[in-house]
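call fold(seq) -> tokens
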Amino acid sequence: MNEVVDGKNPTTLHFSVVIPAYNEEEYLPNTLKYLNNTISQLDGIHGEVIVVNNGSTDQTANIAQKYGATVIEEKKRGIGRARNTGAGLAKGKILVFLDADSWLSLPTLEIALEQMSSGRSGGGGALVVFDQNHGRFISGVLLPRLWNLISRIFKLAAGSFIYCRRKDFFKIGGFSEKLYAGEEIDFCITLKRLLRKTGLAFTIISKAPVVTSSRKLLWYKDHKIFFVLLSLLIFPFAVRSRRLCSFWYHRPT
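ret:
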């Protein structure tokens, strides 16, 4: 695994974007198209895009290659495991984790990279907004606002966009592969604990939220979403069972 030594070499990779993907042929093209455009606008900063094909049965891998991403195969399902696999082969000094149905804008990436290079921040995330609310106030408007409030107060990043130093990622052991949901919360808490020892902040970007897909609003009614979230609050051990976390792994047809 290569470490970035300095930023003078034009071939140096300053950051790596890792995207876990399972059957994402519908959303991945727009995500990669948008991401490639964002990266191309960075001045003197170089990055790579890694798509971890997490056992897909569709054209996910071919689409990723079409848009110039490095494709890594990880057949064992699990978001944490897929992210870890991608990070293990990433060459950038900074790791950026992005969901396959989320769109990373130039301002968001620039702010994250500037904070990291300034030495003020050792990692973070951003507020999130849905691409559309489908006329659903509770799940489409109220729920993301509630999450953003929690994110601001407790400095927790949504899994759709998380960034950190590569060396810190490996110090804390990456994402827990024992968790099938909420692994990003566990990761943030562990990373913040490490950063406090070095006086670095964990930052939530508010000026430029990350746009993410609202597809779950099309798949599930409000009562289903509320029931799942309430169940995890009452029975937090459920995140260790993939079967009990089917909300994140099963896609209605």
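Residues 172 and 191 are 7 Å apart (CA to CA).
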